[in-house]
Design goal:
Length: 397
Amino acid sequence: MSRFKDGAHTDVLVIGGGIIGLGLAWRTAQRGLRVTVVDPAHGGGAAQVAAGMLAPVTELQYGEEPLLRLGIASNTRYADFCAELTELTGLDTGYRATGTLAVALDADDKAELSELHAFHQRLGLDSQWLTGREARRLEPMLAPGIRAGLHVADDHQVDGRRLSTALVRACELAGVGLLRAEAVELLVEGDRARGVRLGTGTGVPPVEGWGTLTADQLVLAAGSRSHLLPGLPADLIPAIRPVKGQILRLRIPQPYAPFLSRNVRAVVRGGHLYMVPRADGELVIGATSEEQGYDTTVTAGGVYELLRDAHELVPGITELPLVETSAGLRPGSPDNAPLLGPTALPGLAVATGHYRNGVLLTPVTADLLAEYLATGAVPALATPFSPSRFRVLETSS
């Protein structure tokens, strides 16, 4: 934890120490700027719960072509991003080039999967159509009734928890100040963001000299609570809604290995289900999607639904030990795409609203925000995700 002196000043102040905030802080520090990250628990946030699928193609939904381009740009960076982190820190990020197999359980699912494949083809994306038998040949543990599959070789995975730990260490090595505190108020002077007032977060021991921290530039990267920062001008950014996701972690005993060799996903009873096998024998199953505000309670119903649907996909799952249940909050924007870049308030940029793609978009968000903070120019790849797009819509309506 960095020492703090009231009235201290830094080049860049990042509000929020999840993987988005840490990633952009690390990349910005590499540009030669002094960076401080304020968060009660650096490395926490949604990544501690996320399965870590890197799936811009199999996650694609109609009308999300700009988000697809952003996701592919991030996915192509991932191998080098993680290799650099590991070389620098000596820590494994859990990155695996596994590919992803999407499967259909019934005739309706097969028709929907076929439409998705046709959409991929129109966009020039690389996905391979498989019969049910071919899908089971790739993953023998799949249920006998699987009707069809769609194999995407370039949709991979990373371990969000390991990635968070590596990014904390990378920031420390790069000289980023990691201040274990809570930003309790945004300070605005002369129509410009100047800094924050600090306080201790829940469970955080007091640090000598709490007060204010100022900066030339600020980045708001506080996930689903980004819009709740006191002092933030009204309507500067839209409300970021929390979308609850419950997730399960099972353990694959050695006699079963390999239980699954790649990410497997499906739509079961209208809900999206995915299974992510880790190299260390962990199997992650997720995730529910619940509009329940800031509640992170793990419910019996959520656990039951995930296990029930996973059993339909891979019947042998009921033999595995259940070792953890958890719930996190995805930060969703009004159009479910991220907010990246400067706001209408000079001195304040944002990197939030990543919804279900926070882990996937970490490398590209880090690069785009670091470039903006170092040069003042918004990269072309970030322009479709300007925070001002919502203000334009409000004005025109």
